[in-house]
Amino acid sequence: MNQKIIDVKGVAKSSAPISNVIQAGNFIYTAGQIPVDLKTGIPVKGTIEEKAKKTLENLKLVLEAAGAKLVDVVKITVFVSNLDYVSIFNEIYKTYFPIQFPVRSCVQVSRLAYGVEFEVEAVAYMGKE
Fold first, then answer.
1. Domains in the chain, start-ordered, CATH in brackets?
2. How much is the pTM?
3. Closest CA to 33 of 1, 71, 65, 67
4. Which residue in 107, 56, 104 sits closest to 81, CA to CA?
5. What single-letter DSSP state applies at residue 32?
6. How do residues 6-51 score in pLDDT, each as one tens digit?
7. Partner residues linked to 103 by β-bridges
């Protein structure tokens, strides 16, 4: 299977040994996206709602760099620092996936990079019907 690392234009390079997006065959895999300014890598300030929205906006951006759309997403994993944030996250999430929800796992973790509240990774399928 061919694998291709996707270059996401305008995104700060991580100091961690990771790729933001990889295409493997008809699948797109994203690294975990967090509520940061992708140009600077600095966490955004604001409400939990704003941070949830920024996380999903970042996910959307890296998917689009690979030619995928949110509608192509088949699996999402959400990492959250506090399960009390899940109901807020769900309200924002429904605006990004209004038609069909991908399969999803959501887990509380003790800590996320930079002390952020959310991290979201996705798998999208770009095959032909």
1. 3-125 (3.30.1330.40)
2. 0.92
3. 65
4. 107
5. -
6. 878 877 777 777 888 999 999 999 999 999 998 888 999 999 999 9
7. 75
- Residue 51 CB: number of other CB atoms within 10 A? 23
Tokens of 103: 């399969």
Give the tokens for residue 76.
Answer: 């999402």
Give the 3-state secondary structure of residue 126.
coil
3-class DSSP string for 54-118 = HHHHHHHHHHHHCCCCHHHEEEEEEEECCHHHHHHHHHHHHHHCCCCCCEEEEEECCCCHHHCCE
Give SS3 for 128. coil
Site of tokens 């409400």 = 47
The one-letter code for the residue type at 124 is A
- Nearest Cα to 21, choosing from 129, 121, 128? 121
Q: Which burial class, exposed, middle or buried, applies to 31 when counting CB atoms under 10 A from its CB (0-12, 13-18, 19+)?
A: middle
Q: Can you tell me the distance from the alpha carbon of 81 to that of 118, in angstroms, rounded to the nearest whole number?
A: 7
Q: What is the pLDDT of residues 75-100, one digit of tens each?
A: 999 999 999 999 999 999 999 998 89
